Amino acid sequence: QMQLVESGGGLVQAGDSLRLSCAASGRTDNNYAAGWFRQVPGKEREIVAATNWSGRLTRYADSVKGRFTISRDNAKNMVYLQMNSLKPEDTAVYYCAADLDANAFMVITTEMNYDYWGQGTQVTVSS
Question: What residues in the chain have per-residue pLDDT under 70?
């Protein structure tokens, strides 16, 4: 059983930066695709960024391109989301997810493909 635990959320002002971290445990390898999603109350969860096994392949939602960066440190079993130039519309609960069925070169952006989820971390950006 895999566990994912997010951290790093908080209250910031518009234009500030935050780095979210996702600690993975319960596996002996890092052979999974990873993604960050976010959800605002009353709305569906949406993809923010995703990466493959190695972290070399990435995809981003149009709304965060150029501002957010997903990365992973497989030696530490960590996945990160660096968020710069934050905007009030980035306010949401952010979730880390893992897809164990993806092959090494797949970047998964579809929520239903993900097998494991963290509990979420709140990010609030004030104007």
Answer: none
**pLDDT score of 77:** 96
Residue 124 has what pLDDT?
98
Degrees, nearest 5: CA angle 5-121-22: 35
The tokens for 107 are 């970047």
Q: What is the full DSSP assignment across 34-70? A: EEEEEE-TTS--EEEEEE-SSS--EEE-TTTTTTEEE
The tokens for 21 are: 């971290």
State how beta strands 58-60 and 46-51 pair: antiparallel
Measure CA 60 to chain center: 10
pLDDT digit string (tens) for 46-73? 999 999 999 999 999 999 999 999 999 9
Q: Which residues, including other chains, have CB under 8 Å from residue 16's CB and lie 6 or more apart?
A: 86, 125
d(CA 88, CA 12): 9
